[in-house]
Amino acid sequence: MVHRGRMPYGDDGRREGNSGRSVPPPAAGKSMIKSIPSEPRVHHRCTPLDPLPVEADAPPVRGTVLVVEPGESFYLIPLRLMLPDCRLILCCDEKEARQIFFYTPVDVVLIDHSPALSALALLHLFKVGRPSVPVLVMAREGSEELAVEVFRSGARDYFRKPISVDEMYGVIRSLLELRAGAFKVRAANSSKEGFDKALRYIQTHFHLPLSLAQVAGKSGMSLSSFVRIFKKRTGMTFVDYLQIVRMAAACRMLRDPGLSLLRISLACGYNNQSHFNRVFKKCVGVSPRVYKKYLGQNVFR
Fold first, then answer.
1. Cβ neighbours of residue 147 under 8 Å, at least 6 residues apart?
2. CB-based contact 41:49 (threshold 8 Å)
3. What CDD domains would the database entry show (predicted)?
């Protein structure tokens, strides 16, 4: 017989599960009933809320949202559940909001305009200090004049309370996605500029004993990222590219009858002329001496 509130146990004191396997009884003083997680609470005084592991149909969007709200923020409970991969930072006065905004990476700001806190004052300050960060304003005692002033001051959007959580979620998610896309474009442009800088360094310093780590450092990228992008952009390895640059320079120098093979090999970064001859023949198909001879016969003209 199963007693109310207790699990069935066999003669040896072990609990029998649904699969027929015996499970050891609970230790003395411990309850078999697991605690049910309480409803997520909204904390004040600049407390960061950790993301909740909630499944979502939409792809995850990440970022930090600063909420300046001196009153109760019950609407943030569903908003937090709808943005499980985001970090919400709540604060309740202007001084704390300024400190967080200027000393913490923030992607979106949401300010509640009320008699206790003027959203306009913070809005002006935030747009002057970091104009790229979008600021949203909400107000219970709103007016058309306030809305006009808010938008003139640079706010991205304005909400009247009671707030539609779905509408606010859509706006915040769109802003986070836009900023993430802008960061990706900026990072791509930065890596392209760094890569081009590395190529120019190779083309102007090929006479030096260049190493892969040294050139990657000129690009500002990590060694692994540079190797991957180098292969993708050029279709060859760093060593092969450096050899081609050096051999192209050697072919130009061989046109000058006043330059000896030894001087050319040294100018191309090879301290050993025999090594230079082998690499040249491998890349061009003939030795430097034969190439110079063909130049005299106008074979390559």
1. 158
2. no
3. REC
Q: Which two tokens stand for residue 151?
A: 């938008």
| Interhelix angle 273-284/238-253, nearest 10 degrees | 100
Residue that is written with structure tokens 């083309």 in the block? 203
Q: What is the pLDDT of residues 81-96, one digit of tens each?
A: 777 777 888 888 888 8
| CB within 8 Å of 22: residues ≥ 6 apart | 10, 12, 14, 15, 16
Tokens of 286: 């003939």
The CA angle 231-236-241, to the nearest 5 degrees, is 115
Cis amide leading into 134 (omega within 30): no
Please tell me the distance from the alpha carbon of residue 91 to that of residue 68, in angstroms, as a whole number.
5
Domains of the chain: 48-163 (3.40.50.2300), 240-296 (1.10.10.60)
Instruction: Please say whether the beta carbons of 250 and 288 come within 8 A.
Output: yes
* Structure tokens that stand for 92 in this block: 């309740």
pTM of the predicted protein model:
0.44
Residue-wise pLDDT tens digits, 12-24: 444 444 444 544 5
